[in-house]
Amino acid sequence: MDIQQKIEKIKEEIKVFDATSDYELESFRIKFLGKKNGILTFLFKELKKFSIQDKKYFGKIINNLKKQVTEKIQLKKLKQQKNIPHFDPTLPGIYKEIGSMHPISILIHRIIELFSKIGFSVVEGPEIEDDWHNFTALNIPPEHPSREMQDTFFLYNNTDSLLRTHTSSVQIRYMKKHVPPFRIISLGKVYRNETISTHSHFMFHQAEGFYIDKKVTFLDLKQTILYLIHSIFGDITKVRFRPSYFPFTEPSAEVDIYFGKTMGWIEIMGCGMIDPKVLKNVNIDSEIYSGFAFGIGIERLSILIYKINDIRIYFENDMNFLRHFQSEF
């Protein structure tokens, strides 16, 4: 192919070229104007072989082609810029709210993380329970105060169903279907009419753990509780166990932590060895197996950690309050 044919082919290619992106424009420029392998660059080098007269003639044509390539690239870029919406750099930026976890959710995840490290699995259960799982199986007789209507929310059309008063019902459901040993932690909402207590409303979150195996002792329970408290409040936190009563554990204890001379000892949770009657209700032989259980209110724990004065703020969706919790606990 002689130089005249090459020039005609290049003219046609430049004429029909149409770019839709910056990448295609750059490829077009390199193809014709590239310093090493550009088509027009190569033609200029070929002119060395021609006579002076032909050099002037074809050199003028090649320069014109180079000009056409450059103009076509500039026009395409200008057209692309016109399609871009006008940007005013003096306008303020569009603020995007940075999401964060709710302090209760942060603490729930923290508890799950801590107990997963010592072999506990997370199990969930229904918030609407029946009488047997919520009370009877846990050795809570009909005359127990927690069954009274002012404390428990029974469903209007079914007096055997209620909003669970504790997550201990999950313990019963799990033990019925599984054979020991097991270590379980269950977390979720519970419902009680306790307007005079620190909950000051009808719903709060609770975490309950239980461990059943051969030769489980109160020492195992105590070490587990100390692990939880020291992991959250620090190793130097003072902890004490006080004898107490729960119908589903025997012996039972309340757990207090010391918050200095100003606040003194504050109760944070209850615990105990699972009552043999509870094990019998779920067909676990108490002569072979023993276990412990504990329950803790998430809101109560969170109030102490974050030094919150009013528990109701957790449920008011106040963005100024929630912004304080953008990092993990």
Tell me what the structure shows.
This protein is of the alpha+beta class and 329 residues long. The protein has two domains: 3-82, no CATH class; 103-325, Bira Bifunctional Protein, Domain 2 (BirA Bifunctional Protein, domain 2, 2-Layer Sandwich). The protein has twelve helices and ten strands. The protein has helices at 3-16, 22-33, 39-46, 52-82, 103-116, 131-134, 168-177, 218-233, 260-263, 276-281, 298-306, 319-322; strands at 121-122, 128-130, 154-155, 158-163, 182-191, 203-213, 239-246, 249-258, 265-274, 290-297. It has a seven-stranded mixed beta sheet, with helices on both faces. Helix 1 (3-16) runs parallel beside helix 4 (52-82) and helix 2 (22-33) runs antiparallel to helix 4. The radius of gyration is 38 Å and the shape is elongated. The mean pLDDT is 85.
Write the layout of secondary structure elements.
Layout: H1 3-16, H2 22-33, H3 39-46, H4 52-82, H5 103-116, E1 121-122, E2 128-130, H6 131-134, E3 154-155, E4 158-163, H7 168-177, E5 182-191, E6 203-213, H8 218-233, E7 239-246, E8 249-258, H9 260-263, E9 265-274, H10 276-281, E10 290-297, H11 298-306, H12 319-322
Parallel strand pairs: 1-5
Antiparallel strand pairs: 2-4, 3-4, 5-6, 6-10, 7-8, 8-9, 9-10
Helix pairs in contact: 1-4, 2-4
